[in-house]
Amino acid sequence: MEPVAPSGSPVRHPVRLRLDDGQRALQAELRAFLAASIPDEFRRTVANPDYLPRDAHERAVAFCRELHARGWFVPHWPAEHEGGGRPIIEQVIIREELAYAGAPLVNSNGTNMLAPVLFQSGTPEQQAQHLGPIARSEVMWAQGYSESEAGSDLAALRMTAVRDGDHYVLNGHKTWTSNGRLADWIFVLVRTDPDVKPQAGISFLLVDMRTPGITMRPIRSMTGYPTFAEEFFDDVRVPVEHRVGAEHDGWRVAKALLNAERTNITRAAQAQRFYDELVEWLHAQEGTRLDLRRDPLVREQLAYLAERIAVGRALSYRIAHLQAAGALTPALASLSKLFWSSFAFEIKDVGTRILGPGGLLMPGDADALVDGHFAEGLLLGLLHQIGGGTNEVQRNVIGEAGLGLPREPRA
To answer: Quick one: which of 216, 208, 168 has its CA closest to 185?
Structure first.
């Protein structure tokens, strides 16, 4: 049986899917399209196109619209909402191929995070208003969770939403907002009842970024990109009809969203791509002073990375299966997040050490090795250990929800 990752990579993948003839045909069609269609500017960077200059973002949007026309942009959505309506194994094939090829996919906050929430908890009107524009890459979404004093401890958020007739009036500050710089809308967690325990007084709102009273400021990351943004809300009026789920039930909605984003199928394919690039570079050094293929330490490190990728891919397949069956537990979702957040940094760290000084140069530098992928990926790997819930938070969830260990007392 053929592995899902593209053929021609220097390592035979031990973890594979059993594909029938139709699935192999889909895989071959995808590979041919991606080989011919991905703009070179995106092949040379590992950054999310939402982080790049607006003109590059707009070219990525055009690419995603072509994917949508072929039914490949949101293959996990039902067909009645402009999705691919594909079975789970075809979803995995498409998402792995896109990730391995470096396809510039925009608006993951909308496609992979908000959309599952709307399918589960949104009203028919909310679904009709928002899902189609997300599928067509017409409306970009940001995630408004973190605040200055509420990141890992998200329940400590302070941004308020006070009911005033058929509107909420929002006041407060959000920061480290994913895709905040380019977003048209933002989904936010807000405090609608300050007099109950923290998790019980939170609501989930959808907010048009053009609403009066919102001020956005970009935040530049270590990579040099304005990866995040912060927003200030001053008496921002949001219709009550833009609330997802019941009032004060936002914590449950938010937890469902986090589970939806933690399949990590794409992380497995991206890790394989980094690994294959590293091995291909080593083979290309044959006969030069940089030929490290017989170095025992290098060989041991490569074997270790190959083993970790295989384990991670198997974990991602299991989670995708459980997610499709509606049986994914919070502890297993956190285990996947912890594994890939840690390994995303580890593989780039090992790669830059093998590549040497040239591996630490960023994309665009004439002397950068492997297009600067490992240097840029190393910096972004630090982000993954914090964003979406820190590694420490994931360990707490695994210990408490998965292993039944007692909650650590607060200081």
So the answer is: 208
Pair 206, 261: CB distance under 8 Å: no
For the record, the structure tokens of 371 come out as: 């297009």
- φ and ψ of 126, to 5 deg: -65, -40
Evaluate if pTM is beyond 0.85.
yes
Distance CA 274, CA 355 (A): 12
Position 41, amino acid? E
Contact call for residues 191 and 160 (beta carbons, < 8 A)? yes
In this structure, what token pair is assigned to residue 271? Answer: 């890790």
CATH architecture of 141-248: Beta Barrel (2.40)
What are the domain boundaries of the chain? Answer: 21-106, 141-248, 262-402
Beta partners for residue 178, in sequence order: 143, 228
**Which pLDDT score is estimated for 396?**
87
Inform me whether the pLDDT recorded for 386 exceeds 90.
no
pLDDT on residue 258: 65
Higher per-residue pLDDT: 273 or 260: 273
pLDDT at 33 over 70: yes
Mapping DSSP to helix (H, G, I), strand (E, B) and coil, where does residue 391 land?
helix
Asked whether the domain spanning 262-402 has the same topology as the one spanning 141-248, the reply is no
Residue carrying structure tokens 């993948």: 13
- How far apart, in whole angstroms, are the C-alpha atoms of residue 51 and residue 106? 10
Question: Integer distance in angstroms from the first to the last C-alpha of the chain?
Answer: 54
Residue with tokens 């409306």: 139
Q: Is the pLDDT of residue 101 over 70?
A: yes
- Radius of gyration in angstroms for the set of CA atoms belonging to the chain, rounded to a whole number: 22
Three-state secondary-structure class, residue 207: strand
CB-neighbour burial class of residue 252 (10 A; exposed 0-12, middle 13-18, buried 19+): middle
The two tokens of residue 45 are 């960077």
Active site residue 261: yes
Give the Cα separation of 189 and 251 in Å (integer).
8
Q: How far apart are CA 180 and CA 260, in angstroms?
A: 20
Mean pLDDT of 189-195: 94
- 408: its two tokens: 């650590």
Longest dimension (CA), the chain: 76
What is the Cα–Cα distance from 111 to 72, expressed in whole angstroms? 12
Q: Which of 2, 41, 247, 261 is catalytic?
A: 261
Greater confidence (306 vs 14) lies with: 306
Task: Please tell me the class of the 262-402 domain.
Answer: mainly alpha
Beta strands in 240-322 (DSSP E): 243-244
